[in-house]
């Protein structure tokens, strides 16, 4: 029988928006997981990729499987995915599991549904490299801040009335149309919101840069005089402008909810949901795809026309963007985040210090296990030998395989397990 439980060495992506050195949760996990890893104090550590993505295929650390990536292993042993997953996703692992450490804002963007993804890939393969959708979920490891979905209309209207530079970009006709739109006509509200946001994002560059500079100057003066700038979302505006001066994305804070997550809270980003990550550390799980439509706060390719056409213009409060975890009835230590997509789910496993022996139960899906906190020795009939688990350890567990953890840490353990629940 082929080995079915083994540790992984995963791929780090050092994007410019990442946290630097040991400020980064990614770097901390790397250093804890492998004492031989040297963390560079001036290097960004943005993402840890745990999966089979072509640009970041994890390496198997098992002397029975020399020099093989996880992608190569699954291609040779597709039954390890589980029958349902193998059939539904043509023998591929359907998700990419990540840790993100965000220092500066990470692009105003949205992800297409499968129909639009196929169309964009056919037309612009250099920008949209596959035909898959890309739903995502972020679960906070530290206090985490992002933009997600359109604000309630009354909040947007308040900004239109308090931020004259924004109103100048939208134009009086569009601004008044949104102010007149009634809550009893959701389609009318969405149509007015679409017009306002599209006018903003399609503003002529010199005009919006002039307005942005005027706004930054005004808020800076007000802040220096000790005035309250919250009516203009002043603190966040100045922070984003310092990171991306002259970028139209700075104005999106007046349309999109600011969502703040505490550790363990999650945000699900379905198709056509406008969003951006602003700051903090999280675990993220996503469908395997590179399809991202961006419109600001990024040096990458921007596709404003596609973004404005595709977005979901349904306003909702920021509290509605927090995705709940459900405590398992079978195991009270497990909290399940199960979004409305088939590609992935994720479990948060909190093992208290009072438990010294814990079973990672078998599932019908292959899974990837990440240790965030605690130490244990893992044993499994499917593993080559006992496995020492500590902060930063990553394991691949084939479908229908279980593993026992013999805990040795005084504070218990915190684990995340990425899987596919078909």
Automatic annotation (TrEMBL):
Highest taxon of source: Eukaryota
Residue span, Phosphomannose isomerase type I C-terminal domain: 336-376
Q: Which InterPro entries match?
A: Man6P_Isoase-1 (IPR001250), Mannose-6-P_Isomerase (IPR016305), Pmannose_isomerase-type1_CS (IPR018050), PMI_typeI_C (IPR046456), PMI_typeI_cat (IPR046457), PMI_typeI_hel (IPR046458), RmlC-like_jellyroll (IPR014710), RmlC_Cupin_sf (IPR011051)
* GO BP term, pick one: GDP-mannose biosynthetic process
- Please report the stretch or stretches of sequence annotated as the Phosphomannose isomerase type I helical insertion domain: 169-256
Pfam families annotated for this entry?
PMI_typeI_C (PF01238), PMI_typeI_cat (PF20511), PMI_typeI_hel (PF20512)
Its needed co-factors are:
Zn(2+)
Q: Which PROSITE patterns match?
A: PMI_I_1 (PS00965), PMI_I_2 (PS00966)
The UniProt record lists the keyword Flavoprotein: no
The Phosphomannose isomerase type I catalytic domain is annotated at: 5-153
Q: Which reaction does it catalyse?
A: D-mannose 6-phosphate = D-fructose 6-phosphate
Pathway the protein contributes to: Nucleotide-sugar biosynthesis; GDP-alpha-D-mannose biosynthesis; alpha-D-mannose 1-phosphate from D-fructose 6-phosphate: step 1/2
Q: Which residue spans adopt a coiled-coil conformation according to this UniProt entry?
A: none
Which GO-annotated molecular functions does the record name? mannose-6-phosphate isomerase activity; zinc ion binding
Active-site positions, per UniProt? 294
- Where is this protein localized, as stated in its record? Cytoplasm
Q: How is the cofactor bound?
A: Binds 1 zinc ion per subunit.
The cross-references to NCBIfam families, in alphabetical order and at most eight, read: manA
This molecule's function is given as: Isomerase that catalyzes the interconversion of fructose-6-P and mannose-6-P and has a critical role in the supply of D-mannose derivatives required for many eukaryotic glycosylation reactions.
Q: Which PANTHER family match?
A: MANNOSE-6-PHOSPHATE ISOMERASE (PTHR10309)
Question: Per its record, how is this protein called by name?
Answer: Mannose-6-phosphate isomerase
Which organism encodes this protein?
Answer: Ptilonorhynchus violaceus (Satin bowerbird)
Q: Which gene encodes it?
A: Mpi
